[in-house]
Amino acid sequence: MTKFLAVVQSDSLEIELEAATSALEGDHAVDFCVDLSSAIHNMRHDAPDLLLVELSGSRDSLDVWQHAIEVHQITCPIIGILDDDADPSDGLLVEAVRIGFRDFLRRPASAGELAGVIRRVARSRPESGRRGRLLAVASTKGGVGKSTIAINTAVHWAASTNQRVLLVDASLQLGVAASLLDLTPEMTIADVAAMRDRLDATMLREVTTRHESGLHVLSAPPTPADASEVDDTCMSIILGVAKSAFDLVIVDSFPLLDATTLAIFDRAEHVAVVTENVVPTLTGTAAMLKTLDQLDVRRDRRSLILNRFQNCAGSLSAAEVAEQLGEPVTAVIKYDRSVLEAANLGRPVVSTRSWWGVGGAMRKLADELLRRVGTDTSVVTPTVVQPGSTSSKEETSPIAAG
Questions:
Q1: pTM of the model as a whole
Q2: How many domains does the chain have?
Q3: Residues 102, 153 within the same domain
């Protein structure tokens, strides 16, 4: 069955569409909504094959739809319904096409007109662009190198791909991305939150700070007081627009499982969980993995990264960590003082040319995370330490820092 969802305010138009749908060949059905909010609610539960929207002739209504397309990730073809006397050269129609309307249906709506729209949509090539992919980097405590992993991954992606890459510093209370990249942002995520009702892809790209690698950065607020304006709803809106403005989005989340962090996970295609081989840290990581299970973030949508690894008396091996957590360890990054030096200089360790040491390990990890987040790239085969394994390959594997 082909399902249509029509957003209309006119009773006569509703009657026209019902009659046109009934007269189509094949199995078709149409549901109706009176406004955008009810349409969004409907689409969340039952995605239509075609979205029909009555155009009011107001540019303000198009602004509302542009915002909705970006924030709520509307991916089905959108068809505008026009009065019979609408001028095809009208700037309103040009604007409608620009924001994503695929075709138009003139009134009075008929089965022939509707069938023609369906055929044109079916024949047309998919839009060249597609929504970006989001990687969330998370931990349950500070100091495990979560931000270092997020920043180095983002810089490597920006420098080594032809993708538009955005790093969002969502560690709102203690974000360090700007400092670690030696940037002085003019605007932060708090400024973006203040204009969320009119935020779109173009605006978001313009307010980010550009790093020399090509990376765009949306920095954390300068003070905890500024961060109070960024709640889970606001974060979800910002990330929804980010995925329409950029090909790849990396979010450095706050080390706390609150509503804002859960909103980030909800938007993410993949979650990288960063931990250390220290028992108290692993206890928190185990709780996070259980929470991800409850949120239906399956194991194929997450990676476990053992960072700042030190092989000393009393410490757990990567194999023991995997066994304790019941989850494979995707990558082992050894402790290296050069990471601290890089932080002080504001130059990520992936900026070094050597494929040895921590810089090389970070690049290989970034390549693997790029593959896992679902983009086309060369596949790097990491050492994955399975639960119960007694292998010590993590100490000599290509993805482990030396």
A1: 0.69
A2: 2
A3: no
